[in-house]
Amino acid sequence: MTSQSTEQHRQQAESLERIGVAVLTISDTRTTETDGSGSLIKELLLEAGIEIVHYDILKDEPDTIRERVLKLSEEKNVDVVLTNGGTGIAPRDGTYEAVSGLLDRTLPGFGEIFRMLSWEEVGAASMLSRAVAGLRGGTLIFCMPGSSNAVGLAMRKLIVPELRHLVLEMRGRQKA
After folding, report:
1. Average model confidence (pLDDT) for the chain?
2. More confident of the two residues 23 and 11
3. What mean pLDDT is predicted for residues 133-149?
4. Which residues of 57-73 are buried (b: 16+ CB within 10 A; e: fewer)?
5. Domain extent listing, the chain
6. So what's the architecture of 18-171 in CATH?
7. pTM for the full model?
8. How far apart are CA 161 and CA 149, in angstroms?
9. Which helix (H) or strand (E) covers residue 147, if one does?
10. Could you say which DSSP state residue 76 is in?
11. Of the four, 11, 23, 65, 111, which is 20 to 30 A from 30 by CA?
12. Which of 55, 36, 40, 145 is nearest to 96 (CA)?
């Protein structure tokens, strides 16, 4: 039996009829009117033909973040949770602690590649990011920094190009 190439997997993933994504902005100060990063995530998802099934702004309170991500990961119409904000090292940045403990399986490559790409844009400051991704049950979870530049980088270079492929892998490809 020959294994499929990544390109073949991507082509197979294009046949996915529906992917439901929840978008969470973690911020003590943003509103729906000032949430540039959340708006950018939604815009890029819609351009890619991906359905947004939930959007909210949460205060940077680890218990609140944990509870919402846990609840969303249990909803049948949510395949992916995308968070932005709270992944730095400031005292109020609690997204990493809130979410990383919920993950059954991690995708270390997301944070590693994100920081490598960030290095090219911001140099050594890229080490401040604690971007993380993984799976909780049948839900993919990505935690991105809150800046629009970082969100744009993560979405355009990593998440959107591979999202259908990731969901296909998570759901389990049909065996030929």
Report:
1. 92
2. 23
3. 97
4. bbebebeebbebbeebb
5. 18-171
6. 3-Layer(aba) Sandwich (3.40)
7. 0.91
8. 17
9. none
10. T
11. 111
12. 145
